Amino acid sequence: MPVPGRLLPPPPGGPAVTAPSDRGVLADRIARSAADPGDGTAGVLGWLADLAQRSFTTAERVPLEELAGWKTDPRTGDLVHDTGRFYTIHGLDVTAPDGPVPHWRQPIIDQPEVGVLGILAREFDGVLRFLLQAKAEPGNVNGLQLSPTVQATRSNYTGAHRGRAVPYLEYFQRRDRRTVIADVRQSEQGAWFRRKRNRNMVVEVREDVEVREGFRWLTLGQLHGLLAVDDVVNMDTRTVLACLPLTGAAMHEGDGPATGGTADDGFREALRRSARCADGAAHPTPELLSWLTDRRSTVELRTRRIGLAETDGWRRRDGRISHERGRFFDVVGVAVRARGREVDGWDQPMIAAVGTGIVAFLVRRVDGVLHALVHARAEPGFVDVVELAPTVQCQPDNHIDLPAAARPPYLDEVLRAAPERVRFAATLSEEGGRFFHTRNRYLVVEVGPAGVPEHPDYRWVTLRQLDGLLRHSHYLNVEARSLVACLHSLRHPNRGES
């Protein structure tokens, strides 16, 4: 058994690099990695704990007025960097005539560049492993989390910060050094980012790769096990993992009776059928795409950039920007000091959510095939108005003062679920580079055979259908992609084992 984190030569006579067009063979190899628990999760958690003792990162809240390198535009009130690079926080005026709240204004992050979220893959003894880094982001509630091999904005990798070069970036820029497994542009949080996109990539190499301090090779089975641990696998890793072609693969060793956890044999088999079978969907894919296109064509959501000073209902006081009712989120200042990053220290504004949110899929078995209930959700920051979201995606306390019609459908189904219906539960952090201590409770909740009434803005879909949509940009939002990765983690009995 190869030791994760130690460089090994390719096995003699090993298989040739799989062409990305050979989807069946590729899915089969990835599924084999998902079925392999490696040396478990305990060693990875110990490695993270040891690195945390030797790393140095602090993120101290400071007043917005004291952020070094940032200024408030005297005309608009916008928060902008002195260089004009990185990102801006300005105001957004939103009109949604058919929504429960027809009009509002809010702060939003504007970062008009495409970053790279890339994971390097390499085969060891016939099993694909993925190179992850232990990265401390200023917004992480617990310091180090597992990040992609490369997690960098364009400003970072073009040197706008005047810091050190981004390790391993060349594998994602030079076509002659890798074989592409996944490469697709995806959105980020449409409620807090204006048209933000990142390039989600997984590339495979055959050559030796130097493993730097803070990086480690892991099987997909190990990563799936670590998804069940709170605040370990970061948001950027989750969204890239969701883009792996995992459906349609054959059965592998390790696909067998449950040895623990919450997923029973029947549930796991229904999930595998959902991933493997091209037939059995409650809504055929052409019908699903037509429904989504209709929602994108008919939902009216108008946005207009305004100055941050014009965001009615928001107040700048005590060194931060907050909603007058204390709901939603704050805009706060953070001073960061770090060791091992491209730069050793910087200041920045960040969004800090008020409270822990709920992100959940309701799932049900339809003729033995598991389906997830997705929501055609409009958010002001999306490029194409509507993307497929989880069944529930909200902070419940934000709806206390809103009209009853604004309460998310199916929220009570999730909150009142009996423990035996909860198939996955973990509290996971959102992107720590822009969001400060912002976390959601990720849940997969199974409903009975009768299911729940299907709201016009919702559809039951299979995991294979979701995988097909993830080959393309802007179909699933970032919260749904995280949950797809969590769903895949339930296909094998090694989830959460050490």
From TrEMBL:
Residues 1-20 are annotated as: Disordered. Residues 42-244, 287-487 form the dTDP-4-dehydro-6-deoxy-alpha-D-glucopyranose 2,3-dehydratase domain. Residues 1-14 have a biased composition (Pro residues). GO terms for molecular function: lyase activity. This is 2,3-hexose dehydratase. It comes from Micromonospora okii. The lineage of its organism: Bacteria, Bacillati, Actinomycetota, Actinomycetes, Micromonosporales.
